[in-house]
Specification:
- The protein is an all-alpha fold and 169 residues long.
- It has one domain.
- Helices cover 75% and strands 0% of the residues.
- Helix 1 runs antiparallel to helix 4.
- It starts with a helix and ends in a 12-residue tail after the last helix.
Amino acid sequence: MRQRVVLVGFLLSLAALVAVSCGGGGVTVEEYFEELQGIVQEADEQDEALDQEFERLGAAARDAAAVAGLYQRFATIFGDSLRAVQALDVPSEVADPHAEMVTSLSEVFAILDALADQIRVAESEAELEVIFERFQLGEAAAGFDRACARLEGIALADGIEVDLECGDE
């Protein structure tokens, strides 16, 4: 079950970073990274609150219904973060990494949809364990990591301090 909570953090960061590619192009690279960092931080705070709630549930967190409820809340946070980032303008200097991220995000959405369907019908802790053991982001995560690292490299080259939590769990 702890894997699910760790996944929440990764996916919130992924959503925040990937969705930026849908923006326009009227801001500077520095402004872009400032706004992006703010969204990533907010998503992290929401993830931490959800993680704490999961920990408070203790043994109840093994209940399929409780896990499904937490996953639904995660999906709401994920969607809210995604919409916030989609509203950002994206400078042309970061357009290529965003194209990679859009591909990764599409793959993540497909995986998450399948996971949500499986969680909703799970009836026991054992079924949930099997679902989460099989759950993998695979190439979607690898694509995110590549694009995220490229974005951080752009920021570094421009003298912009940013921590997008690339590859962090």
